[in-house]
Amino acid sequence: MTYYQKLTAHFAKLDRFNHLAAVCGWDQATMMPTGGNQARGEAMAELALHIHQLRTAPQLADWLSEAKEETLSIIEAANLREMTRSWQQATVIPDDLVQAKSLAGSRCEHAWRTQRANNDWQGFSTHFAEVVSLSQQEAQIRAQANNCSAYDAMLDLYEPGVDSAQLDGLFGDMKTWLTPLTQQIIEKQQSEQFIQPSGLFAVEQQQALGKYAMALLGFDFNHGRLDISSHPFCGGTPSDVRITTRYDESDFVQSLMGIIHETGHARYEQGLPKSLAGQPAGFARSMGLHESQSLFFEMQLGRSDAFISALTANIQRVFPHIDKAMLSEQNLLKLYTRVQPGFIRVDADEVTYPAHVMLRYEIERDLMNQKISYRDVPDLWQHKMQAYLGVDTAGNFKDGCMQDIHWTDGSFGYFPSYTLGAMYAAQFMAAIKSVIDVNQCIQTGDLAAIFAWLESHIWQKGSIMTTAELIKHATGESLNVEHFRLHLQSRYL
Amino acid sequence: MTYYQKLTAHFAKLDRFNHLAAVCGWDQATMMPTGGNQARGEAMAELALHIHQLRTAPQLADWLSEAKEETLSIIEAANLREMTRSWQQATVIPDDLVQAKSLAGSRCEHAWRTQRANNDWQGFSTHFAEVVSLSQQEAQIRAQANNCSAYDAMLDLYEPGVDSAQLDGLFGDMKTWLTPLTQQIIEKQQSEQFIQPSGLFAVEQQQALGKYAMALLGFDFNHGRLDISSHPFCGGTPSDVRITTRYDESDFVQSLMGIIHETGHARYEQGLPKSLAGQPAGFARSMGLHESQSLFFEMQLGRSDAFISALTANIQRVFPHIDKAMLSEQNLLKLYTRVQPGFIRVDADEVTYPAHVMLRYEIERDLMNQKISYRDVPDLWQHKMQAYLGVDTAGNFKDGCMQDIHWTDGSFGYFPSYTLGAMYAAQFMAAIKSVIDVNQCIQTGDLAAIFAWLESHIWQKGSIMTTAELIKHATGESLNVEHFRLHLQSRYL
Ligand SMILES: [Zn+2]
Ligand SMILES: [Zn+2]
């Protein structure tokens, strides 16, 4: 047995334990009665510890360096590179810091659930201070190992290959045009008439509609499910992808688009290369690329004129008792492309969303690089929300800096992925449109050519290439924010 | 840290991995799409291996013998006894035999699914021969360790403390009266008129009815769920018990009683001592005692005149479109107490069920003790079915010796648990009736006193006492088959 083979066996084992964690995590969010939470939490913590032990198993250091000397194919070499990355990320942080951060994270997240409801920044900030401090320690250790800035080291956990120099450039560019563009769009939409949903949209009917859209978008129900959870997500494993949504019986609009979004995540997972199943080179490339697929489905396809038009007849059929004017193609299109600055990131439209991300990026970057203190967060939040979106969050922590779960458990470096995803998605669509008549595909309901492009250019690539190589290979150029700007301009102006 | 404390920490960890196995097993049977089966099977096999490694961890031998010298409370001593039992059972069999049996079992069970459908004894017997041979090897090794017969060593896995001498006595007694009693009952019922269910019993309505019965029977929905699977079972963990059923939309009768049966299993699990959660002394005592709780709920409570009467109004309310005569108390009672010899154990009524068990007991006992060959099974089956139930299974392997899954994976020694459970249940009811007016409880819908008795005498005892001690302590006497005979006589004659 070669060292490379020993490694693939080890990582296959690791993947099988991750499979168990994915199923039990999904169950916890969708099926588990409340009373099961204590024991489930303990079982999952035990499993997380076991997974950590497998990721940091002492024999891996030797095996990884021995395997480097073996003759490997390009794909095997890529797999070894990703194994090494996973091992380095897991081993570089001392076990007691891992445990301290995990405990502080659980405490902070748990407290946050009530403190947010009570708009209690004061109470929250003591827990938050602890998480920030431990995350700063983590970032510094990772920075030393990676020879980069503290924040860049955290970013690398979610977006390998992307650093804050690149983000400063991308977001700096965007800043020059996003706020004026938003203003222009708002003015244009001001005079538009539209009808808000009203009536009963029963869960069963919404579910039927959601499954119809999933089928249209090629979701493989033999390898996945749709269920309900309070926070929508895409979980499970590539051969059994579990997506969730939540339903509001007074409005189907958000839920339907939420399902389309998660379907994008799901198809990426379902489309990953089976020959590399369970191996690091076979995993999704990055959080940003994952989001590029969900946003491709939601923003590039889902909210397009052609797709709304294709869905309209089915929407009308599923809700026969609802006013036809509300469910008209024109009205649905207006509802699905409405732009309005607001407090809450997860409710934001695609035009104002990047502003939410930029402000979080700037704050978390400076927090990790120890340029600011956790105490500065509310003021910075208020100031930046005012500057980017003209929204006043003074004293409103609940809908301000306390609105997201990400920082409560120390996931600093995650937020940029959302907007990188939007940019990648626009660039992919531009590349696809240069070879495929996308509107015609959507109008005829035959999306196969679009999915075939995504499958061969993105999904089937797993993590074999780096993100930069993948983007270049798929679109012929490096990440270029201009595609996103053109997309917004052509849809909204 | 004492050795006893080291052991409780180790067994708590083991329990947490068993928790993961229970959740993933439940998901596999209820939620998982077919395409997820391959990866799930691999993940669960990996987990089973890890659990086996924890059960046989090399340090346990020392810890167990050191802990024996420590000062322990009665409960701690019982826990140590059960830990030792678990360890001995897991370590006594060499790893290669464990693996060989597991592989042969999977192969045989997999082949059985189609071979049974094709009535293909010839094809099945080659796989079955392998499983029998490996199980015989296992039984001999266990017998040597336990200083008992081969079959008794297998029995000990499911019914610790019960041996074939005791079973020969119990079943020998039953044989003298069961067949004549069955004849008498059939003759009595021959002239009875009753109406078979007909009409549509929609799954949602059956579910609502099932949940109503579960609530009436004290199932704690904060610590459990009801779902659908092709083979009903009770799984999950004590703080999150998952019961399942299957629905036939042309007949609600079996499904409702199936739910009541699983509710009995569930309440035992939900009622286990929380102070011993995750520790061997806190687990259910035996398979027979588990079945005693499900059969107490199904046979002693569920099919009683008083309980059927208490359910009738709700059954009629749930199915308003169904003929009232069919749903009358008198008719339901007849349907729920109909006695009829048949081929299939799982479809048998409580009067003929023990005959199915006795014949399997006699065959598996002689198989494990190498008194007969696997080749003799069909003839013995045919002969005994004729003798005990007057039913001819010649050439019908499908509904004969190939009907059960138990022997396909080598679970020899399990079958007696079903009838031990029926006997225990009758004895518990007799003891309860000596202190509680059971019919009055059921008529007023206030079953709390009955459950309090079960909780304090059975559920809260976990595995602290041996089964024999538990029965004696709860009922004032050893297992006495007379209670079961009297129960059948008073209900059916
Ligand atoms: Zn997403
Ligand atoms: Zn049962």
UniProtKB/TrEMBL annotation, chains A, B:
UniProt function note: Broad specificity carboxypetidase that releases amino acids sequentially from the C-terminus, including neutral, aromatic, polar and basic residues.
Family the entry assigns: Belongs to the peptidase M32 family.
Organism superkingdom: Bacteria
GO biological process: proteolysis
Binding site for Zn(2+): 261, 265, 291
Organism: Pseudoalteromonas ulvae
Active site, per annotation: 262 (proton donor/acceptor)
Entry cofactors: Zn(2+)
Protein name as it appears in the record: Metal-dependent carboxypeptidase
Lineage of the organism: Bacteria, Pseudomonadati, Pseudomonadota, Gammaproteobacteria, Alteromonadales
InterPro entries documented for this protein: Peptidase_M32_Taq (IPR001333)
GO molecular function ontology, one term from the record: zinc ion binding
Pfam families noted in UniProt: Peptidase_M32 (PF02074)
Claim: Transcription is one of the keywords in the record: no
Transmembrane segments annotated in the record for this chain: none
Enzyme Commission no: 3.4.17.19
Cofactor note: Binds 1 zinc ion per subunit.
Keywords noted in UniProt: Carboxypeptidase, Hydrolase, Metal-binding, Metalloprotease, Protease, Zinc
Keyword Transferase: no
Annotated catalysed reactions: Release of a C-terminal amino acid with broad specificity, except for -Pro
